[in-house]
């Protein structure tokens, strides 16, 4: 079944996820939806020092928004912040050094953040694809700790902050790769099977889609969405998937093209980005399952994911 899913997904990707796929889809975009200025609105972008996150932060800064960059590497983050300020002319760019794979650090960060700042939009962009099983200091598998638990802790901790503001939104940068995975709550830390970083990453991205759907139902005052940026030429792809990067080469999207739907979900009029809880690709909601792929999960499986994440989140609070 995985072979079938992967074949269908790759064929779909060649049609839709490449640069030409973006160019085709963009013919239906409404340009005015991003012709906005957002002074007074605050945006948090995790992983905002490179790739899609940096492109997103820069475009928001150009439109007058206050941007909070949440990054792990201080030197690279400071360089990105300086560049965004210089090129956008916007001084309201704040930097926060946080390792999202460390839940204790995430909790502490949010406690400090909410004492000093407001927030309208959270963009969960940071992620990692570690190709050999690696544990954090807390004994958590690194991909899961960053891509799933880190996103869960940051988002749930910030929900009370977001709910106080007008038109709050949470956007999670997932991946079309999740289409090859069915939610698996029996081995969240990748302990029981041979480790495949690409498949672990895809499973994490499936988990993010499930979380988005659950959050949307539980918190109707906030607009939740997740999205697939397409196949994008980023430092992360070049580092973690060198073979894929070499194979696709010039067919990969630019970072700006990858960031387009993130920006649209963050900035477009509220009625344009409805409904909440959906998975978006190129500014439109798309299915979260391939035909005949048998990747649907039961409510009980989804509830088990929430319970495990909540237990871990509270353990490290």
Automatic annotation (TrEMBL):
Domain of life: Eukaryota
Cross-referenced InterPro entries: NAD(P)-bd_dom_sf, SDR_fam, SDR_member_12
Pfam families tied to this protein: adh_short
Name of the protein in question: Dehydrogenase/reductase SDR family member 12 isoform X2
Record organism: Delphinapterus leucas
Gene name in the database record: DHRS12
């Amino acid at each position: 079944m995985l072979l079938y899913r992967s074949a269908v997904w790759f064929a779909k990707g060649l049609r839709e996820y490449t640069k030409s796929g973006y160019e085709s889809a963009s013919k239906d975009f409404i340009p005015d939806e991003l012709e906005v200025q957002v002074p007074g609105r605050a945006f948090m972008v995790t992983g905002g020092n490179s790739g899609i996150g940096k492109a997103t932060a820069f475009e928001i800064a150009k439109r007058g928004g206050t941007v909070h960059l949440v990054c792990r590497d201080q030197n690279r983050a400071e360089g990105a912040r300086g560049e965004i300020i210089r090129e956008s002319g916007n001084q309201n760019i704040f930097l926060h050094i946080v390792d999202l794979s460390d839940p204790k650090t995430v909790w502490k960060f949010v406690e400090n953040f909410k004492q000093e700042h407001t927030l309208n939009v959270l963009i969960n962009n940071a992620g990692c694809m570690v190709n050999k099983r690696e544990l954090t200091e807390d004994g958590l598998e690194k991909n899961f700790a960053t891509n799933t638990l880190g996103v869960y802790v940051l988002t749930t901790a910030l929900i009370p902050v977001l709910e106080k503001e007008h038109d709050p939104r949470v956007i999670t940068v997932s991946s079309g790769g999740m289409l090859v995975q069915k939610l698996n709550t029996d081995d969240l830390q990748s302990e029981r099977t041979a480790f495949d970083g690409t498949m672990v990453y895809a499973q994490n991205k499936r988990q993010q889609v499930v979380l988005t759907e659950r959050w949307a139902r539980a918190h109707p005052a906030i607009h939740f969405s997740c999205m697939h940026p397409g196949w994008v030429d980023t430092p992360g792809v070049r580092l973690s998937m060198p073979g894929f990067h070499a194979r696709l080469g010039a067919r990969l999207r630019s970072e700006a093209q990858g960031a387009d739907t993130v920006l649209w979900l963050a900035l477009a009029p509220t009625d344009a980005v409805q409904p909440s809880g959906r998975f978006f690709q190129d500014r439109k909601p798309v299915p979260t399952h391939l035909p005949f792929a048998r990747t649907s999960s039961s409510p009980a499986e989804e509830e088990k994911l929430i319970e495990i994440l909540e237990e871990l989140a509270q353990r490290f609070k």
